[in-house]
Q: What sequence folds into this?
């Protein structure tokens, strides 16, 4: 069992979920409440990773941000290395790749909040941030939890982007999905089997626990 | 990846379809379509061989290229390939032993060579050989994954024998197969790579970089084997293709791509 790969995947998934919670909530808020006429363009950009194969994102990161392009040179001069083959590179790729999995449930949650409650809060003198944290977010907690869980789960299950830009470095970019792939290629079916089973049980457990809690969270808010 | 996923899917679906409708083997054409799985180091050479074979026989050849280990797993699980070109002859032998390949059909078609390769814009003095990799400016060295890619194993062995391994092991990036390792260096993301001679001589890389041949006493020969898959839907076509591989014309072509030919093709 490759615990190093498992813990790396967990670290990546927790980081991605954390970043998307912080970055995704404002984006989702804007997407939900903005009246800008070109808003649909931003919505389309956010949803792109749902449609694009991971190979496209992988290709852009590897070649488009490679050291031969302007953007890649800028990156290299700031950080001293290129984006691929680093944990940071993997993190950026994963955040982009899981963006819609956070923003869309967040936004769907916000949509369900009664506009009159939001406006009542404003007329009672609460600021917009206060209204967001004390009215909107509690009323859309289910959407927020779903977004976090989905981005976490999606990152654990990520494979294509990591295979393309990771470089398979133990402890840095060899995630559990890559490890299983390597085991299968080397015909170590026993090892692949064990890791796959652990991953399956773990994923099921996490999702069950969170959906279970999620239901209670929702019923909590429904009670007056 | 999408293609790999497709292959994996085909591996699951196709045998069932074949079971459901046991189509009588009436081949109008002399050989129909031959489906070939080829190790990544053959990518370029195989396209040319396939085109020549098609011209000579009127058959169609479908080529999939990828990692030998992946093809082994896929064939063990029913992938619909007729002929399998492995970068490691142990895989065809394993398939024969498992009863999944035509007994006695394994043929040593070439021996692969490895080289140290850098892009033209690199300042690395590769005439110093593998020791040049000690240079601190070299941040990433691309090799194929030694866990399952024969070229990766050879690279590791050569680095160990020249006592450079410990100095570079923390700077490795591992390609899923030798083509991906080449892509890592070609795109500039890795500073140097240990690649297959056949790839660096290919049209895609030839003009883009320079190479240093790694002495053959530093690594065990990379014996490349081809085998006929037993579950083939087109055994005659597969056999015809294998015979074509053994022809002098193909041998000359392989040599041009940097493969060294075995004296006689028996493993």
A:
């Amino acid at each position: 069992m490759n615990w190093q790969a498992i813990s790396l995947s967990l670290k990546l998934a927790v980081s991605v979920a954390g970043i998307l919670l912080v970055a995704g909530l404002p984006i989702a808020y804007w997407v939900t409440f903005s009246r800008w006429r070109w808003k649909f363009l931003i919505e389309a950009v956010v949803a792109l990773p749902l449609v694009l194969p991971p190979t496209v994102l992988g290709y852009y990161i590897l070649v488009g941000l490679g050291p031969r392009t302007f953007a890649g040179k800028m990156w290299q001069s700031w950080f001293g290395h290129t984006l691929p083959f680093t944990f940071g590179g993997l993190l950026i790729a994963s955040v982009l790749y899981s963006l819609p999995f956070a923003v869309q449930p967040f936004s769907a949650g916000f949509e369900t909040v009664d506009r009159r409650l939001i406006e009542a809060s404003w007329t009672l003198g609460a600021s917009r941030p206060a209204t967001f944290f004390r009215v909107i977010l509690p009323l859309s907690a289910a959407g927020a939890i779903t977004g976090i869980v989905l981005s976490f789960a999606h990152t654990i299950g990520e494979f294509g982007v990591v295979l393309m830009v990771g470089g398979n470095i133990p402890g840095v970019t060899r995630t559990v999905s890559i490890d299983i792939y390597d085991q299968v290629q080397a015909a170590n079916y026993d090892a692949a089997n064990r890791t796959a089973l652990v991953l399956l049980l773990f994923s099921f457990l996490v999702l069950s626990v969170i959906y279970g809690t999620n239901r209670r969270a929702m019923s909590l808010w429904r009670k007056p | 990846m999408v293609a790999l996923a497709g292959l994996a899917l085909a591996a699951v679906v196709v045998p069932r379809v074949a079971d459901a409708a046991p189509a009588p083997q009436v081949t109008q054409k002399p050989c129909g379509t031959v489906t070939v799985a080829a190790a990544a180091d053959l990518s370029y050479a195989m396209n040319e061989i396939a085109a020549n074979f098609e011209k000579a026989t009127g058959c169609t050849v479908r080529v999939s290229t990828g990692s030998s280990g992946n093809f082994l797993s896929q064939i063990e699980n029913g992938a619909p390939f007729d002929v399998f070109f492995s970068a490691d002859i142990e895989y065809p032998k394993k398939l024969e032993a498992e009863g999944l390949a035509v007994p006695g059909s394994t043929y040593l078609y070439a021996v692969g060579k490895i080289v140290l390769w850098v892009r033209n814009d690199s300042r690395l003095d590769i005439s110093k050989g593998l020791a040049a990799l000690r240079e601190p400016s070299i941040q990433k060295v691309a090799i194929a994954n030694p866990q399952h890619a024969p070229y990766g194993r050879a690279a590791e062995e050569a680095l160990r024998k020249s006592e450079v391994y410990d100095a570079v092991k923390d700077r490795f990036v591992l390609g899923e197969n030798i083509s991906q390792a080449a892509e890592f260096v070609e795109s500039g993301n890795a500073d140097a790579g240990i690649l297959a001679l056949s790839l660096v001589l290919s049209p895609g890389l030839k003009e883009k970089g320079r190479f240093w041949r790694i002495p053959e006493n530093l690594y065990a020969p990379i014996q490349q084997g081809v085998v006929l898959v037993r579950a083939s839907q087109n055994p005659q076509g597969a056999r015809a293709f294998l015979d074509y591989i053994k022809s002098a014309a193909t041998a000359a072509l392989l040599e041009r791509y940097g493969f060294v030919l075995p004296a006689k093709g028996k493993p």
Remarks:
- Residues 3-222 of chain A form a domain with the MetI-like fold fold (CATH 1.10.3720.10).
- Chain A has a mean pLDDT of 88.
